[in-house]
Structure formats: C-alpha cells, structure tokens
C-alpha cells in the first residue's frame, strides 16, 4: 500500500521490547473487585465459584498462548509465566499485556454465568474488568521469589479475611469493629481468635483458599529442542500438542524446594 502523507505520525510510537532471555511475568488483577464482589454478592471471605471462574479464565489464556509454562492465581489476580525464550510479538510489552488482559477479560465475561449461575447476570454498569502489567525477572531465583511473594500474600490475606469475616458474620461485629480488633495483630493472634472464639482451625481450611492455584501444562513427548532449531512444520506440530495438552490444577506449596525439585522441567523449559 502506498504511503499516505499522514504516515509520519507513526514515528511518534514508542515500543518497549522486554529484555531477551529473561522470565516474563504478566499479572492481571481485577479492577475494584472489593466493590465488585459486594455488588455481585460473592460469598465472604472466599467465593469458590468466583475462584473457579478465575481459574477457568486463566486456562483459556494458557490454551490460547502456548508460551505460558506456569500460571499462579488467587483472589482477583493471575500471574502468567512465559518461557525465557518466548518471542511472541517480538517481546513487545504493550502487545503482550493487552493481549493477555483482553483474552482473560473476555473469558471471564463469557464464563461468568457458567460459574456464577444464571441468577446473577452482569449489568453493563458493573462489568468485570482487569488491569495488567509485565515484569521481567533475570534469574530462576528471582522468578521463584516472585511466585513465593504472591503465594505468601495469598496466605496473609486469607488469614486476615477468614478472621475478619468470622468476626463479622459469626461474631456479629461491625466491619469497623472487626478491622479495629485485627489492627496490629500477628498471625498467631488471628489463629487464636479463630480457634478459641469460633472453633475454626485455620490449618483445616481448604487448600485452594490458603495456597491459591497453580496451573501447569502436562506435556507428553514435546520436543525439548529450542524453537529456533525447529522447522516451520515441526513448530506447528509442537504448537498443536501444547494447545491440546491437559492443564493441571494444583493447590500446593511452591515456596519450598520440593515443588521445583519434583518438576525440574519448569525452570529448564
Ligand atoms: P484494585 O482495583 O486496586 O485492584 P481491588 O478492590 O480489586 O482494587 P484487590 O487488592 O485486588 O483490590 O482485592 C481484591 C478484593 O476482591 C479482595 O480483597 C476481596 O474483597 C475481593 N475478592 C476477590 N476474589 C474474591 C473471592 N473469590 N471471594 C470473595 N471476595 C473476593
Ligand atoms: P494483528 O493481530 O496483527 O492486529 P489482524 O489480522 O487483526 O492482525 P489488522 O491490521 O488489525 O490485522 O487488520 C484487521 C483486519 O480485520 C482487516 O484487514 C479486515 O480483514 C478485518 N476486519 C476488521 N474489521 C472488519 C469489518 N468491520 N468488516 C470486515 N472485515 C473487518
Ligand atoms: Mg483488584
Ligand atoms: Mg487483587
């Protein structure tokens, strides 16, 4: 196509190419889900249907984008880890984050009624939307620390929320009073409140609430060669296998070494 005299405006565009040979993590997070979850009467502190909806939406993203090797999610957020050699969109940041967040958001909206039931239709004034960012991590250790940070955050928030909602729903305290009661308390204090006042042993809470969700692609006989060393046809075949691969859902600890020692292929790609 011939260039028009307007073509020069393209020179105003700027592109951020994410550093090569580093782990790219894209995290999507629900916008204003504190209020959103109130608006649609999420069960507190944890609505299992809403967590399932998040997990199923993340699986849609993983099936669509085969560069994702692992995803971790809890509450209204999901982190997608892309393989180090990923060349999707030449690693252009804006293309990556916008594609991930729109695919995730589309899936979340499409699957909403499947998981939340037909009695809670979405209204246009209160649509679920998400933001997203990309960060690159240069080493395996830092990638592991990133995921550990998110899982630790899940635990801290969940212990707080479990105690807060026990005080409100079972202890008939106002939200303000419950928040005041928990101000400056340590984990052991919250465990104690749960146990002595409500007979709840936090350790027995469902693992999905305490640990969040890890998604992994279960790949059989996928070649371990570098994509650069494969022919176009081989690449297409690999891509097909990855898209069809089963996605495994886990609610286990990823902070300790066991998770990684048992699955060396994750960090080795
Ligand atoms: P922001 O737009 O800055 O992300 P936010 O209101 O979404 O603001 P977050 O820190 O992301 O704040 O917190 C998400 C909130 O959504 C949680 O604190 C909780 O109140 C609610 N929430 C998310 N998932 C669930 C769930 N499965 N069950 C109950 N509540 C949930
Ligand atoms: P990329 O993912 O790189 O954006 P693309 O296939 O979306 O690739 P675009 O340059 O965005 O490429 O072009 C969008 C294409 O979508 C158009 O070339 C046209 O074929 C099709 N298209 C978009 N809107 C319409 C429409 N309203 N009616 C018919 N075709 C359309
Ligand atoms: Mg949020
Ligand atoms: Mg959040």
Automatic annotation (TrEMBL):
Mg(2+) 2 binds at residues 29, 76. This is tRNA(His) guanylyltransferase. GO terms for molecular function: GTP binding; magnesium ion binding; tRNA guanylyltransferase activity. InterPro entries: Thg1_C_dom (IPR025845), tRNAHis_GuaTrfase_cat (IPR024956), tRNAHis_GuaTrfase_Thg1 (IPR007537), tRNAHis_GuaTrfase_Thg1_sf (IPR038469). It comes from Geotrichum candidum. GTP binds at residues 29-34, 75-76. Keywords: GTP-binding, Magnesium, Metal-binding, Nucleotide-binding, Nucleotidyltransferase, Transferase, tRNA processing. One of its GO terms (biological process) is tRNA modification. It comes from the Eukaryota.
């Amino acid at each position: 196509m011939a260039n028009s005299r307007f073509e020069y405006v393209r020179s105003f565009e700027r592109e951020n190419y994410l550093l090569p040979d580093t782990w790219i993590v894209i995290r999507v997070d629900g916008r204003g889900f504190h209020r959103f979850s109130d608006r649609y009467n999420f069960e507190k502190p944890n609505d299992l249907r809403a967590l399932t909806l998040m997990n199923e939406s993340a699986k849609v993203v993983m099936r669509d984008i085969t560069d994702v090797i692992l995803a971790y999610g809890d509450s209204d957020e999901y982190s997608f880890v892309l393989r180090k050699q990923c060349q999707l969109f030449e690693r252009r940041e804006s293309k990556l984050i916008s594609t991930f967040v729109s695919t995730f958001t589309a899936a979340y909206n499409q699957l909403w009624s499947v998981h939340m039931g037909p009695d809670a239709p979405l209204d246009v004034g209160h649509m679920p939307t998400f933001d997203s960012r990309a960060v690159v991590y240069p080493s395996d250790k830092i990638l592991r620390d990133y995921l550990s940070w998110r899982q630790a955050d899940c635990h801290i928030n969940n212990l707080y929320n479990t105690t807060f909602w026990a005080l409100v729903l079972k202890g008939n305290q106002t939200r303000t009073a419950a928040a005041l009661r928990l101000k400056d308390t340590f984990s052991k204090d919250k465990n104690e409140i749960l146990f002595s006042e409500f007979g709840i042993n936090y350790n027995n809470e469902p693992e999905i609430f305490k640990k969040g969700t890890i998604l992994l692609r279960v790949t059989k006989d996928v070649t371990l060669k570098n994509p650069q060393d494969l022919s176009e046809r081989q690449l297409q075949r690999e891509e097909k296998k990855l898209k069809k691969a089963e996605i495994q859902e886990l609610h286990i600890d990823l902070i300790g070494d066991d998770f990684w020692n048992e699955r060396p292929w994750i960090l080795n790609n």
